């Protein structure tokens, strides 16, 4: 790649060295490069071996005296570290236990978890100096409000907080990530992200386990000349890196046996959406969505995958020849910025390693999976329909939901709410994005929902499973059906394009309890972070 091509700057902005001056134009955009690396330092597809994050072992286990359920105790420490992402240069990151992505937590439904999250980060973020106060969200868990990563419930460097996770929901792929108020994008982009897998007996019986149950945390990045991460969110429109990372490595290659594999695909990009597809034209068999197993598996040639959505996908490698390479590619979607190699994600090299055919999942492609509570709801149960408009406020350059922002919530002393569903009630929430130039992955905390319709038509086949993030594309209106259970209290809803969330497309709703009621689960006061005496 020539210097002149590499120096093409996006949008008349300053590239990785500062915020762009203009916003992203509508329609798909192609550019040559976002990184400022010398071409000899620039990673290329399919050079790096595939790796997975290590599994986190509990530091101890116990029994909850209140209900007799087993509890796993885990320790995680947020800290600055370096990662080997590029072929020769090292990259400073912020990571859970110093890793990007952080260690994977794996447990069974019915085992509770207490995660001691220690903030040992430096006082200030290495990129822009913002204070490194954090709040940790376990995305996909119906946690109590004080353990849900409420953005303003911050833990300062030198403090820790014990997060309690109930793990009573059906098996699913969850992920934990920073949710610190107004700086989530830069904190997650620098590495504060990890997967969390909850198993149950049905899922163990139907789907591949162990080394055939593979976490793929996909993100994009851009790099400065010295190998550090660049950051340019184009005036809070979004960040589009030119390097695609899977589990923190650029376009890796994974060796696979001739059998069926299960991939837990998390798009952890802060803005980019993906459209995964296989180079052979073979289908991706979607078996799970954000909230776990779908009622029926869905075979697709490709599918649209926004930030924070999780799709569990089976790929059948039985028919390929030893030595064959299959690429997982990205067809992209409107309003992403694409570069030379963002059309590739990773590759699989088929080996002749013997397959264990006593494992019944080696050749199983299930069709009927299970009905979750969210998928069993019917529109007739809904007692209320609420409408929300996601939009940009051009005069303030802010993103809002019904003109609300998180700053409004802060200003109100955390009182202002956008909706007040009754406890255990069923409602329809309609989300309208009338913009032709933006897509918004909308996330609603606490609930699993069903996508009832998209623009008055059926939901896409692959999203007919329990969801907690919905891709609200350009000019789209979606209708969602959900039950506000089991907890009461304050929960966030927001766009998961993280620069949008930070500036400031986030609001809160209150389940049950009336204003003025004493709230035992007040997210700002019920479980405060405490000073950490342990050092290290
Ligand atoms: Cu994955 Cu409120 O976030
Ligand atoms: Cu958005």
Characterise this structure.
With 536 residues, the protein is mainly beta. It has three domains: 5-37 and 208-350, Cupredoxins -  blue copper proteins (Immunoglobulin-like); 60-192, Immunoglobulin-like (Sandwich); 373-511, Cupredoxins -  blue copper proteins (Immunoglobulin-like), CATH 2.60.40.420. It has helices at residues 3-6, 184-189, 201-206, 373-376, 406-411, 498-502; strands at 29-30, 60-63, 70-83, 91-96, 102-108, 112-119, 136-139, 159-165, 172-178, 193-199, 213-223, 229-230, 243-246, 249-250, 253-256, 260-267, 276-278, 284-289, 292-300, 310-316, 325-330, 337-338, 344-350, 384-393, 398-401, 426-432, 440-444, 449-454, 469-472, 477-483, 489-495, 506-511, 530-531. A hairpin with a 2-residue loop joins strand 18 and strand 19 (292-300). Copper (II) ion is lined by residues 399, 440, 495, 497, 500, 505. Residues 137, 139, 177, 179, 308, 443, 445, 492, 494, 496 line the site of CU-O-CU linkage (C2O).
Keywords:
single chain, 536 residues, mainly beta, Immunoglobulin-like, 3 domains, eight-stranded mixed sheet, 6 helices, 33 strands, 6% helix, globular, binds CU-O-CU linkage, binds copper (II) ion
Please describe the topology of this protein.
Elements: H1 3-6, E1 29-30, E2 60-63, E3 70-83, E4 91-96, E5 102-108, E6 112-119, E7 136-139, E8 159-165, E9 172-178, H2 184-189, E10 193-199, H3 201-206, E11 213-223, E12 229-230, E13 243-246, E14 249-250, E15 253-256, E16 260-267, E17 276-278, E18 284-289, E19 292-300, E20 310-316, E21 325-330, E22 337-338, E23 344-350, H4 373-376, E24 384-393, E25 398-401, H5 406-411, E26 426-432, E27 440-444, E28 449-454, E29 469-472, E30 477-483, E31 489-495, H6 498-502, E32 506-511, E33 530-531
Parallel strand pairs: 1-22, 3-6, 5-10, 11-16, 15-23, 24-26
Antiparallel strand pairs: 2-3, 3-4, 6-8, 7-9, 8-33, 9-10, 11-12, 11-13, 13-14, 16-20, 17-21, 18-19, 18-20, 21-23, 24-25, 26-30, 27-29, 27-31, 28-30, 31-32
Bound molecules: CU-O-CU linkage and copper (II) ion.
CU-O-CU linkage binds next to strand 7 and strand 31.
């Amino acid at each position: 790649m020539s210097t002149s091509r590499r120096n093409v700057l996006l949008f008349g902005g300053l590239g990785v060295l500062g915020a762009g001056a203009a916003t992203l134009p509508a329609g798909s955009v192609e550019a040559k490069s976002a990184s400022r690396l010398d071409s000899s330092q620039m990673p290329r597809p399919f050079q790096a071996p595939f790796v997975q994050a290590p599994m986190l072992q509990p530091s101890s286990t116990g029994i909850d005296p209140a209900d007799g359920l087993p509890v796993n105790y885990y320790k995680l420490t947020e800290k600055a570290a370096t990662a080997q992402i590029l072929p020769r240069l090292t990259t400073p990151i912020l990571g859970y236990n110093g890793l990007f992505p952080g260690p994977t937590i794996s447990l069974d439904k019915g085992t509770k978890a207490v995660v001691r999250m220690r903030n040992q980060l430096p006082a200030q973020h290495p990129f822009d100096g913002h204070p490194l106060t954090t709040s940790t969200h376990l995305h996909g868990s119906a946690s109590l409000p004080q353990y849900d990563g409420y953005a303003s419930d911050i833990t300062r460097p030198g403090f820790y907080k014990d997060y309690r996770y109930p793990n009573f929901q059906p098996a699913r792929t969850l992920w934990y990530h920073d949710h610190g108020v107004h700086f989530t994008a830069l904190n997650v982009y620098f590495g504060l992200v990890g997967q969390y897998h909850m198993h149950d007996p049905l899922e163990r019986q139907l789907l591949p386990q162990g080394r055939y149950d593979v976490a793929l945390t996909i993100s994009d990045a851009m790099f400065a000349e010295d190998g550090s991460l660049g950051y340019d969110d184009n005036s809070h429109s979004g960040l589009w890196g030119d390097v695609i990372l899977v589990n923190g490595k650029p376009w890796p290659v994974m060796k696979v046996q001739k059998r069926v594999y299960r991939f837990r695909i998390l798009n952890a990009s802060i803005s980019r959406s993906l459209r995964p597809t296989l180079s052979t034209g073979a289908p991706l068999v979607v078996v799970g969505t954000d909230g776990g197993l779908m009622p029926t598996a869905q075979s697709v040639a490709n599918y649209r995958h926004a930030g924070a959505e999780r799709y569990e996908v089976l790929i059948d490698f039985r028919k390929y020849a030893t030595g064959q390479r299959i690429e997982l590619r990205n067809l992209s979607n409107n309003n992403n910025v694409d570069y030379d190699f963002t059309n590739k994600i990773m590759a699989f090299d088929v080996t002749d390693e013997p397959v264990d055919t006593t494992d019944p999942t080696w050749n199983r492609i299930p069709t009927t999976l299970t009905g979750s509570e969210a998928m069993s709801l019917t529109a007739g149960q809904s007692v209320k329909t609420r409408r929300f408009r996601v939009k940009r406020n051009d005069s303030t350059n802010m993103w809002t939901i019904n003109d609300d922002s998180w700053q409004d919530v802060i200003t109100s002393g955390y009182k202002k709410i956008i909706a007040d569903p009754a406890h255990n009630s069923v409602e329809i929430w309609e989300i309208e994005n009338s913009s032709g130039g933006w897509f918004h992955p909308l996330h609603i905390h606490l609930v699993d929902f069903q996508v009832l319709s998209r623009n008055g038509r059926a939901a896409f086949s692959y999203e007919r499973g329990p969801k907690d993030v919905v891709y609200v594309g350009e000019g789209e209106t979606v209708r969602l059906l959900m039950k506000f259970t089991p907890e009461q209290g304050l929960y966030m809803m927001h766009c998961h394009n993280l620069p949008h969330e930070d500036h400031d497309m986030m609001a809160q709703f209150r389940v049950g309890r009336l204003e003025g009621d004493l709230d035992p689960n007040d997210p700002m006061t019920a479980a405060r972070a405490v000073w950490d005496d342990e050092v290290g």
